[in-house]
Model the fold of this input.
Amino acid sequence: MTQGAGWDGILEPGETILWQGQPQPGIIWRDALSPLGLFGVVFTGFSLFWITAAASMLAEGPGFPFTLFPLFGLPFLLVGLFMMGGHVVLDAYVRATTWYTLTDRTAYVARVILGKRTLESYPIAAMDRLELTDGMPGDVIFGVARHAHPERVARQGRARNKLVTGTVTQTGFRKITEARKVWRMIRDRQAAMERLERDETP
Done:
């Protein structure tokens, strides 16, 4: 995407694009070697054992509909397969439909997932953190997103929903080949904004 193709009405007047890119494409299988992946192996193995054992016990049983009982293990099997390796396939799909844009004022993350277009913006002046994970590819992290989840709590004899702090997700430009260059661009812009603010302070 360029400033004249799809960005009309989104960028502020005078806002200049400094860099554009996409995350590294393809499935990164080494990401499956994580605590989640290892737990997925155990979870999948237990699900297969449960399905096989249930099917063996009912092989000469009362017949339909009891023969469908082993199928109740399929959701657990699917969850285990997702934890074991499915999440890296999903991550590859999300990266393939993600575009990054850095301007002299804002970092943009655009996605098109299942036909739904989303655009997130992160003003450089509001970034309270900036971290570089160097490598090929690397990450440039400039914020966190906190997700609150409802939780059922008992209060005065009644159960009510209450929002509690849940997961924390880092936001930024992930799996990019020019991570160090982009990190330096953002740092330079932050320094320039700080100098301008000092000069304008009486």
About this structure: DSSP finds three helices and seven strands in the chain. The CA atoms of residues 137 and 175 lie 5 Å apart.
